[in-house]
Design brief:
287 residues, single chain, MetI-like fold, elongated, mainly alpha, 70% helix
Amino acid sequence: MTTLPAPLPTFDASTIRKRSGERNITLYAGLTLFALIVLAAVFAPLLTSADPLQQNLLQARLAPGSPGHLLGTDDLGRDVLSRILYGARVDLRVGVLAVVTPLVIGSILGLLCGWWGRWFDTIVMRLVDIVVAFPFYVLVIALVFALGQGTKSIYIAISAVGWVAYCRIVRGQVLVAKEQEYALAARASGLPTWRILLRHLLPNVILQAIVYAMSDIVLSILAIVTLSYLGLGVAPPSPEWGSMIAEGQNSLLTQWYLATIPGLCVVVVGLALALIADGLVNQFNKR
C-alpha cells in the first residue's frame, strides 16, 4: 500500500487532449473488463434468480453445470454464482470507497506540504515515516481487530494507513511543479493561494496519484479478502469472496470450485485494474 510507483511526467490539459485520440489498447481493454465486472455486480438480480443467502441442504455440493446452478452449490446448498455476483458488490464497493478517502486526504496534505513546507511539512512527513515503518497488513489487521468486525472498520483502517502514499506522491510533484513558469507566473500575478493550488497545481500533480489509485484498489480488495478470510472482514452469512475462499479451502480436492472461483474473481479484478493503470501510464508517456 505504501510502495510508490515510478515518477510520471507532468502534463497540461492540451497535452491530454492531444493524446486522448491516440489508440491505447491496454487502457481500453482494462476499462472494458472492469466495466463488465461492475455491470455483472450491479445487474446481479438479472443474471441469477437465486438468493445468495438461501440454504437448501437437499441440493448441497452440486457440481458446476448442474441444472439451475451454473457454478454449483456450496456445503449449505447456496448458489455459488449468486454469491459470487453479490460478493462482487461488497468487495468492489469497499475496495473503491476505501481508496477514495485516502486519495483525497493524502492529496490535500501532500499539496499543502509541498507548497508551504516548514513546520507543517515536517510534522506531516514525520507522521508519514511512522506509518510507513510498520507493514500495511499488520496495521490494518490491528486496527480492524480493535474497532471490530465490519465494513466500517475496514474503511477506517485502510484510510488511516493508505493516505501516506498519496501524500508523498503529491508532495513530490508539487515541489517540482511550484517552480515551473506557470506556477511562478500565477504567484506573481497576485492570485490567491487557494486558486493557485486548486486551479493550477492540483490538475498537474494529481495524475500520478490517480494512476497509483488503480493499483491501490487491488491492494484494498486483497486486504478485504484477507480480513474476511481471517474472520475480521464482512460478517457471515453475507456473500464475500474472502469468506467464500475460507469456507471452501477444506474441500479443494472434492469441491475445488468453492475456493477457486472466488480466487479467480480477485485475479480478474486485479488484472483489469492493472491494465487500466498501465494504460494510463502509456497514455501520458507517449511522445
